[in-house]
Amino acid sequence: MTKPDPRDLLGIRDLLNEEEREIADTVRTFVRKEVADHAGQWFEDATFPKHLVGQLGEMGLLGMHLTGYGCAGTSATAYGLACLELEAGDSGLRSFVSVQGSLAMFPIWKYGSDEQKDRWLPAMARGEAIGCFGLTEPDRGSDPGDMRTFAKRDGGDWILNGSKMWITNGTLADVAVVWARTDDGVRGFVVPTDTPGFTAREIKHKLSLRMSATAELSFDDLRLPGDAVLPGVTGLKGPLSCLSEARFGILFGALGAARTCYESALDYASTREQFGRPIGGFQLTQQKLVGMAMELNQGMLLAVHLGRRKDAGELPPELVSFGKLNNVRTAIDIARTARTILAANGISLEYPVLRHANNLESVLTYEGTEEIHTLVLGQLLTGQSAYR
């Protein structure tokens, strides 16, 4: 029998097929080569590494779980594993890929017209055009049905007014998928960001996701042609289906941050000496390492299981909530525990632990807060809605 690997205690890798392992290995190599040594500086400088976007496109990571239009057409599980490896570098990098593929490309791919698909998807898959997703508003986060952004008809055109907040890629984007109320219900609009009346303002002074480009979007009598609307969906089903796609990537991605924190603590415990020997030899340190290893491996089993269900077309959105809620909580616990093993060194950007811990605070909130996912599952269990 082969001795278990401390970095893959349950042998999760053996559950993956050859293509999935190859994709995971390729992305892991890319992150270690291009991201790991620079992520701390990018975090400190609050700078997104835009120069990597073309490489992400060349690797087929943008919209990778979609088919056609230059997209790679991989399995959902492979997409999840890529998200995990990207977030092992930094949550901001995974957020870029999630927003590009699951929140900007996916609605155009699923609900857009042929013209919209042909115009945007190939360029977005190559990384030549960047997208963002406008749903959250300054005073409307968990209750998007009460949004204030409104689009009204003006002859054959649409006039869009309103604002969106906490928009990843907002200052980088060439196109925004914006959700707005209309007289006929909530509709999605494909908005080129060079349209007069569109403004993106960078949100500064963040203590989390500093490597991510985050913006407030404003629409001031922004005029769009009639064919800017996504024809394939009306109502909140549209944006909520996109969020479910993004949450799936998160339930894998958060474990990448957790794995980096766990491995950092494991390495540190083997070399840091106190009282004449490595701290990994002390019982309390071993207790922490064992707890982290157990949580990480349990989260990985859950992620792979949900990935298999999604690939089989049998993953309801409530179970995506289950995975996102559980695995982000797990990742935060691991990051915080790892920080205690590194002690004072754990707060330094020379190590990745507190950077990941800070990022995960945002990951816990976006794409549905901890409370909202709890209520989603509560409704599933009881049959009763507790939202209002």
UniProtKB/TrEMBL annotation:
**GO BP term, pick one:** fatty-acyl-CoA biosynthetic process
Q: Which residues form the Acyl-CoA dehydrogenase/oxidase C-terminal domain?
A: 235-378
Report any Pfam family annotated for this entry: Acyl-CoA_dh_N
What residues does the Acyl-CoA oxidase/dehydrogenase middle domain cover? 132-221
Descriptive protein name:
Acyl-CoA dehydrogenase domain-containing protein
Organism of origin: Amycolatopsis methanolica 239
InterPro entries per the UniProt record, alphabetical: Acyl-CoA_Oxase/DH_mid-dom, Acyl-CoA_Oxase/DH_mid-dom_sf, AcylCo_DH-like_C, AcylCo_DH/oxidase_C, AcylCoA_DH/ox_N, AcylCoA_DH/ox_N_sf, AcylCoA_DH/oxidase_NM_dom_sf, Glutaryl-CoA_DH_mitochondrial
Q: Which residues form the Acyl-CoA dehydrogenase/oxidase N-terminal domain?
A: 17-128
